[in-house]
Amino acid sequence: MFLKVKVFPNSKKEEIIKKSEDEFEIKVKEKAEEGRANKRVKEVLARYLNISEEKLILIRGAKQGNKIFKIIKDQKLIF
After folding, report:
1. Can you give the residue range of the structural domain that contains 47?
2. 1 C-beta neighbours (distance < 10 Å), count
3. Smallest Cα–Cα separation from 43: which of 30, 53, 55, 57?
4. Under 8 Å CB-to-CB from 25, ≥6 apart: which residues?
5. CATH number at residue 61
6. pLDDT at residue 76, rounded to an integer
7. 53 with 46: CB under 8 angstroms?
8. Which residues pair with 56 in a beta bridge?
9. Surface-to-core class of residue 41, CB atoms within 10 Å of its CB (0-12 exposed, 13-18 middle, 19+ buried)
């Protein structure tokens, strides 16, 4: 399964907004420097979905505000 995530780094508060079944907006306090915001987004999203961080793979948008994550289950990719 693919998840579309729009990230707002350097926000005053952390927040996750579910826009649709596979689309989220996530605000994080970390700055978009050295992957800090990406790391925090992954933590927040994993906690929200109640899965481990290892099951979330950032496949597109490492240096952009719009990202795509893939969820893996039992070592097999979910499409």
Report:
1. 2-77
2. 13
3. 53
4. 5, 6, 7, 8, 16, 17, 19
5. 3.30.1200.10
6. 56
7. yes
8. 71
9. buried
| Backbone φ and ψ of 66, nearest 5° | -95, 125
Residues 49 and 63: their CA atoms lie apart, in Å, by 23
> What 8-state DSSP symbol labels residue 32?
S
What distance, in Å, lies between the first and last C-alpha atoms of the chain? 4
CB proximity list for 21: less than 8 A, separation 6 or greater: none
For residue range 43-76, list pLDDT tens digits in order. 999 999 999 999 999 999 999 999 999 999 766 5
Mean pLDDT, residues 22-48 taken together: 95
CB 35 within 8 A of CB 24: no
Tokens found for residue 47: 């906690």
The number of domains in the chain is 1
